[in-house]
Amino acid sequence: MQRGLDSETKKQLEEEEKKIISEEHWSFIIEEQSFLLCEDLLYGRMSFRGFNPEVEKLMLQMNSKNKREEVKDEAVELDVSDEEMARRYETLVGTIGKKFARKRDHANYEEDENGDIKPSKAKKMFLKPQD
Amino acid sequence: MAPVMAEAASVAAESLGGGRARAARTVLDQVVLPGEELLLPEQEDADVPGGAGEKLLRLNAGARSRVRVVCGPGLRRCGDRLLVTKCGRLRYKEPGSGSGGGVYWVDSQQKRYVPVKGDHVIGIVTAKSGDIFKIDIGGSEPASLSYLAFEGATKRNRPNVQVGDLIYGQFVVANKDMEPEMVCIDSCGRANGMGVIGQDGLLFKVTLGLIRKLLAPDCEIIQEVGKLYPLEIVFGMNGRIWVKAKTIQQTLILANVLEACEHMTSDQRKQIFARLAES
């Protein structure tokens, strides 16, 4: 009793598969049954002259969502400028770092009169005696 | 219209009889019949007969660009070509942001709706069984809508939906092998205007092509209708429109105008709107 395919039919099937795969590389054709891709349709709920204010708000929202997808390159308005951000970040790193520094490292975080962190001095390391 | 259609039909019939496939690019906005095969732009060189054609083939085989083409409603893929399955005009849309290929489809007319995933439709609740509602959407079988598929619905807090209510929702499952399923929330869990449509108003049925025409971004009919009096309209892609205005008479006028505008020329339409605006 023979189970499975014999070697000849297997080879034929493999060849057919390879042929199909290589044919598909030429141009991809995708089938879609939806009209949403084909035509830009407006949102289905509409209200005019203030009959239903919620629907009018929705109309503005949904219809501008479709158009907004085209205008993605607009620069986002910055609330905080870059320089301000850099300044704050600089001071922040020191203050949070202080929290996690051990007693010995507190020397690196000495503050002068204004509360700004002084530039750290050279670390004291063990010097091997020269003999 | 009649002589143009007859000529177009004869050209199409000739190509079907002759067995030569036409290039899709040359047939845009013309009538195509089911059974026609259309060639995509990059395959037109293959049909040039003679020695020059063979040379072209060899040169181009290596440099064949792989363009992704979408075939929309009314078209099927048949090897490398497009096979037309519905009669109507062939349309093409350029690719938007360089995603290659573009979309071809056939602008056909039909009254019977076939559920498609992602479509917003108006359904009528016909039965309430356990955790799901059965919604009639005008297709071959009723769609199912789970009671949890509404905004803010939980097992304790059930939505207030009765048999006979109108629902505006979208399909999440819609293929020929399974029962269609719809929901009244989007992927973020917000309603976005979907759910039970309010009291009163009138629901009527039109052809599917009219819905698409009315929902086109530059549709004059909707703009003119909106200037008449305060009103609310909901369009379902299954050919159903629900309208509501302040009085019953205004609602009926609106329904009649929308039904009739499919077969009117723009002049006739303007006359009617002028008369309505006066009264």
TrEMBL record, chain A:
<dbReference type="Pfam" id="PF10175">
    <property type="entry name" value="MPP6"/>
</dbReference>
<protein>
    <submittedName>
        <fullName>M-phase phosphoprotein 6 isoform X3</fullName>
    </submittedName>
</protein>
<feature type="region of interest" description="Disordered">
    <location>
        <begin position="107"/>
        <end position="131"/>
    </location>
</feature>
<feature type="compositionally biased region" description="Basic residues">
    <location>
        <begin position="120"/>
        <end position="131"/>
    </location>
</feature>
<dbReference type="InterPro" id="IPR019324">
    <property type="entry name" value="MPP6"/>
</dbReference>
<dbReference type="GO" id="GO:0000460">
    <property type="term" value="P:maturation of 5.8S rRNA"/>
</dbReference>
UniProtKB/TrEMBL annotation, chain B:
<dbReference type="GO" id="GO:0005730">
    <property type="term" value="C:nucleolus"/>
</dbReference>
<keyword id="KW-1017">Isopeptide bond</keyword>
<dbReference type="InterPro" id="IPR048541">
    <property type="entry name" value="RRP40_N"/>
</dbReference>
<keyword id="KW-0963">Cytoplasm</keyword>
<dbReference type="Pfam" id="PF21262">
    <property type="entry name" value="RRP40_S1"/>
</dbReference>
<dbReference type="Pfam" id="PF15985">
    <property type="entry name" value="KH_6"/>
</dbReference>
<feature type="domain" description="Exosome complex component RRP40 N-terminal">
    <location>
        <begin position="30"/>
        <end position="109"/>
    </location>
</feature>
<dbReference type="InterPro" id="IPR012340">
    <property type="entry name" value="NA-bd_OB-fold"/>
</dbReference>
<dbReference type="InterPro" id="IPR026699">
    <property type="entry name" value="Exosome_RNA_bind1/RRP40/RRP4"/>
</dbReference>
<protein>
    <recommendedName>
        <fullName>Exosome complex component RRP40</fullName>
    </recommendedName>
</protein>
<dbReference type="GO" id="GO:0010468">
    <property type="term" value="P:regulation of gene expression"/>
</dbReference>
<keyword id="KW-0539">Nucleus</keyword>
<dbReference type="GO" id="GO:0000176">
    <property type="term" value="C:nuclear exosome (RNase complex)"/>
</dbReference>
<keyword id="KW-0698">rRNA processing</keyword>
<feature type="domain" description="K Homology">
    <location>
        <begin position="201"/>
        <end position="248"/>
    </location>
</feature>
<keyword id="KW-0271">Exosome</keyword>
<comment type="subunit">
    <text>Component of the RNA exosome core complex (Exo-9), composed of EXOSC1, EXOSC2, EXOSC3, EXOSC4, EXOSC5, EXOSC6, EXOSC7, EXOSC8 and EXOSC9; within the complex interacts with EXOSC5 and EXOSC9. The catalytically inactive RNA exosome core complex (Exo-9) associates with the catalytic subunit EXOSC10/RRP6. Exo-9 may associate with DIS3 to form the nucleolar exosome complex, or DIS3L to form the cytoplasmic exosome complex. Exo-9 is formed by a hexameric base ring consisting of the heterodimers EXOSC4-EXOSC9, EXOSC5-EXOSC8 and EXOSC6-EXOSC7, and a cap ring consisting of EXOSC1, EXOSC2 and EXOSC3.</text>
</comment>
<dbReference type="InterPro" id="IPR037319">
    <property type="entry name" value="Rrp40_S1"/>
</dbReference>
<keyword id="KW-0694">RNA-binding</keyword>
<dbReference type="Pfam" id="PF21261">
    <property type="entry name" value="RRP40_N_mamm"/>
</dbReference>
<dbReference type="GO" id="GO:0071051">
    <property type="term" value="P:poly(A)-dependent snoRNA 3'-end processing"/>
</dbReference>
<dbReference type="GO" id="GO:0071035">
    <property type="term" value="P:nuclear polyadenylation-dependent rRNA catabolic process"/>
</dbReference>
